[in-house]
Structure formats: C-alpha cells, structure tokens
Amino acid sequence: YPLIRKYAAELGKKVEVLGDLQGPKFRVAELAGDPVPLVEGEIFEFGLCKDDNDAIRPGRITMKPTIEQKALIRACQAGTVLLIEDGLMEVKVTEKVSDAELKVVVTRGGKLKARKGVNVPDVEIDCAALTEKDIEDAEYLLGLEPPCEYICVSFAQKGQDLQELIDIMD
C-alpha cells in the first residue's frame, strides 16, 4: 500500500485503491490419502465431518463443521449445484439426507484435493457476509492514511450485508 501511494505521487497520478474483504470460507476438508478422482456420473456422500477422522475419500466428500459450512449444507436442496475449486468440478444434489448430509452426483469431474473452495451459485446461505476478520480488515483499510477508497464485500446476499460495512465506515 505505501509503495502504491509513493509511486502514484512520483508519477503525479491519483490512484484509487480497492480492498477486497475475504468473506466466509466454504471449503472441503482434508484428504484421507491421495487426491480423490471425481468421475462424471458417480454418486458421493457430501456432508459435514462426523469426527476428526472423517476425511475426504472415495465415495465421500466432507467439510469441517463450521457455522458457515453448516449453513451451506442446510441451504442445499435436491437439484442444487455445488461448484468445487472455482468451478473446475461440479456436483448436483440428488437427495438431502439431513441438515448435515447430502447425496450428490458428479456432473463435471476432476481430481479433488484438500481444502478446495465450494461455491453454491444462486442459493442464499444464512450466514453473515462479514466475518470477524473482515470487520478487522475493513477497520484497518479505513485507518490507512489516506484510507482505502473502495472496499468490496465478497459474499453480499442482501442489503443488510452492505449496511454492516457502511456502519463501520461511518
């Protein structure tokens, strides 16, 4: 940040800086072994880890039972599409077994590795858009001299999500 401001001043240019807040993380858990091949048409269990030994393995994809990840599983219904690793892989919910467990079919395969991101487009997930870390980061960005001109909220789903950041900025 200081270098951006320094070089902009040297060039006589006004450069505006955008800070991007991380938002809640939705990730698959650890692996029991090597990356797990997801083959199109295969059926997998997709759920929250039942214990510390419940890792990703053939036939099962797991997520750590955080508040955010519990909300993600709860929000899914039959027909929901889940994108894994920035959309490189895709699974579709065939059955909601419980609020902690889904059955999915692989619709776009690949090799699943540990801690890859999960995204559920077009599904509202009941969790806060701003994490405690996001609030700390926003306060830091606003405390810079000069402050960051723009701040992005990565996981805004409704107006209240933006209002939280606006309240911090006021």
TrEMBL record:
The keyword Metal-binding is annotated on this UniProt entry: yes
Enzyme class name: transferase
Domain named Pyruvate kinase barrel: residues: 4-169
Assigned EC number: 2.7.1.40
InterPro entries named among the record's database cross-references: Pyr_Knase (IPR001697), Pyrv/PenolPyrv_kinase-like_dom (IPR015813), Pyrv_kinase-like_dom_sf (IPR040442), Pyrv_Knase-like_insert_dom_sf (IPR011037), Pyrv_Knase_brl (IPR015793), Pyrv_Knase_insert_dom_sf (IPR015806)
Top-level taxon of the source organism: Eukaryota
Keywords assigned by UniProt, alphabetized: ATP-binding, Glycolysis, Kinase, Magnesium, Metal-binding, Nucleotide-binding, Pyruvate, Transferase
Gene3D superfamilies associated with the record: Phosphoenolpyruvate-binding domains, PK beta-barrel domain-like
Pfam families reported in the protein's UniProt record: PK (PF00224)
Pathway, per record: Carbohydrate degradation; glycolysis; pyruvate from D-glyceraldehyde 3-phosphate: step 5/5
Stored PANTHER family: PYRUVATE KINASE
Protein name in UniProt: pyruvate kinase
